Fold these 2 entries.
Entry 1:
Amino acid sequence: MATVDPAAKRKRIARLSSIREIVFGVQDGILTTAGVLCGLSGAVSQRNQVILAALASTAAGALSMGAGAYLGTRAESEVLHTEIKRTREEIVEEPYVVQESLLEALAKEGVSREAAYRIVKLLSSAPKALTATAEEKVYGIAVGMSGDAIADGLFMGIAFLIGALVPLLPFIFIASLHEGLIAAVATTAIALFAVGYFTGWMAERNAIRAGANFFSVAVGAAVAGYVIGLGIAKLGGLSSVAMP
Amino acid sequence: MLKPGDTAPPFDLACAIDSKIGRLRLGQIKSGLIVLFFYPRDFSFICPTEVIGFHKARVDFETENAAIVGVSVDDAQSHLKWAVELGGVSYPLMADIGGKIAAAYGVLDERECVALRATFIIDAKRQIAYSVASRANVGRSVSETLRVVRALRSGRMCPSDWQPGQSFGPDQQKY
């Protein structure tokens, strides 16, 4: 009979938790770079300047997003551990309150009050089990909840970089600015649809609808970026045609 | 919450007593004093210390002609099981389903639909002689309740922290 290996499942769930950083990084990389390309193409006529600015934006974005994810996860982890420490002190100082809270939590989940009382009483004979259960059931916190800060930072940074390359590569390889821009927008839309489709599929919901959501966000960001770029050029007295 | 001097609202509720389910009315209690204590729920972790505490002190309360009655919003069947779980309870546990009596005494926590942790001592005229309530996480003192019962029974001016055997107020007059 096939059995589920809890350790393997735990590892799989931990790996899956990185999906947040990957999806966020890819999405942000695609959108930011596409926005930069569209915005600068509206304001600047020289292709090389646009590419250099987009490359600089990509490098800065990848580093910034990676560092942000690292610092964010580390801060979350530190706060979580402090909270867990405080909760454990409360459990030692006020066991009745924790027992009562756990009993109420179980009762709210449909366990009869009498059964919940017996479960908590049984758990109370093993303080570690009581602590772990109370942390999860009562306070909604668990030691394994905090992610790996270094892994999160790396995933986010690399994902941003990969996402940024999606609109950037066609723009670099197609000589015409306008055609390159159209190709960048097209690959952006396709890639965002693909990311949306993938997340929808992972979440077991309507993948096409999820892909369409991403697509509309992409088109909205690109159009908005282009319009803002044109507006800035006009405000600064610049003309995309007159620029050398 | 009712205060000393208020008339005790009558009750007529199902209760668990002596491993059986019965009914209890305020009018059928003959003791001079009644210690009526409300507690939030059966099968909890603070309440048993009080329920057991009153059970252990029952002889002392009987000596003072004081009946003990416990009340919660649980049904009588739950009270029976709870009493067995605690190793037996020698006084009635009344089933105030819906909390009508708790509301009448002004100690119903409407948000949680349970009684507050409140104690009333009802005198021979069936008026409130003493009332006290605390937050759900703070258990009440059985010995303090007994001290108040003895002080009330003395009928004298009792100074702070008075204990049986100690002198009464300066005028030595009946209250």
Entry 2:
Amino acid sequence: MTPKNTVLKHIRRSPYQSISAIFMTVTTFLIVSIFSLVVLGAGRMLSYFESRPQVTAFFKDDTTSMQVDSLKSVISASTPVESMRYLSKEDALAIYREQNTDNPLLLEMVTADILPASLEVSAKNVTDLEAIAGVMQANLSVEEVVFQKDVIDTLKKWVSGIRLTGIVLSSLLIFASLTTIIVILGLKFTARKTEIKTLSLLGATSWYIRGPFVSEGIIYGVLGSFLGWGLAYLALLYLTPNLVEFLQGIPLLPVPLWIMFALLGAELLLGLMIGGLASLIATRRYGR
Amino acid sequence: MIVFDQVTIRFGNGTQALSDVSFAIGEGEFVVVEGASGAGKTSLMRSLIKDITPTHGKIVVDGDDLSKISAKNLPLLRRKVGVVFQDFKLLFDRTVAENIDLALDIMGLDKNLITKRRTELLTLTGLSGKEDHFPIQLSGGELQRVGVARALSTQPKVLFADEPTGNLDAKTGLSIIRLLQDIHEQGTTVVMATHDLELIKDLKLRRLRMDKGKLVHDSGVHHHPPKTDQPKADKPGEDQLKADPAQRDKSDKVEST
């Protein structure tokens, strides 16, 4: 009987034990995949916000273009700036119209006169934002300064919170998968004690005896990681249209294929390690 | 071939299975270890394959001092000897063919060689046509024949049979004894443990009588195999193993620690 047939026979002979081992690893890798994608997305979202104009100065109605240019010069001279964009009242109206195309009533009521001109400044470093905001607030032609640092700080806290939760939850589930495979393979190993004793008396090496069990553990780990990843990917594809709408132009989706395949590769490797380690522990512990 | 030198085996609960047992068995002998239940026959047989380790004394099998064989090299020793068990120790979820193949598969031999060797053994043990049967479909005698075929599959120099007739009726038991004699006549050293003195009363064999763990009598009759027309190399399957010296070497060599 070939090793492959022996493994398949082991799995077929105790289907419920095998299903529970695979179910546990699928759950683990589904959660690992979800948290990985969420953390990845949150990180990219943070980068997106950090690279966007984070300080916006809204000018008074009587501000002249010379006053705007003067403010630009002062800001450029005081801090390193990534980019600066002046939006006139007409530009602001165009953006407003674009955002409210489906509401004609609002479009009729708003004209360029009531919208303020603004200057959007993106800093090279988030730490410079406060200084830029200070310069803006000191300028007499500026009516209001919208400062996004608080938003970014809150987002950062969320990202690190999600990351920590993901790490803790994934670690617990990986441990649960590991112990589940150890217990299930241990039971199978113990149930075949007589056969193992016979093989040993016939001169089988330790690896000849343990090999099929180790292969079985690896199958649980690898199959579980593949199915868990597959389920997470299917859910992502299903939710993408809704998420795109929710994110309102933040370019996170669709997730590039190479990222999904890199995630699959990492999870298959982790699955292989979990299955292999669990089966080695099980056959060593119960084989005594 | 086999040397027992003042061997004592004492279990953890204080039971003394063997007490200061010494004997030597030469190549080509057929030796019967006889005695009542609890005399120490099975302990003696188990110690020969290092299934249990002596508390005191030395056991040598085919030049290998068992006390010096490490756990890692133990499989190599066990491949050198064939063992027939009273309870057959067949794998009931495998066919007759798969059970016979087991020892050769463990050695990692080529599939074609395994098939060839199996066919020879099925003929030798009178099991031709039953290769696809499962053990549950066989009689007690046939089960033991499968056990003998499996033990012989690796072409061992020595065959240990522990109560091979213990679970069989007299007629079937006798057929197994005859099969062992045939194997012995082809040059294999055979050591058989039995409590059934009636079954072997007419056989002129060397007898070691055990009682309460002690060797109480050694008939000392060395019965060498009769000269046969067949050279030893013509033993079933030996030519194939000879054709593949690497495999033969692998099965013969046992490294000591």
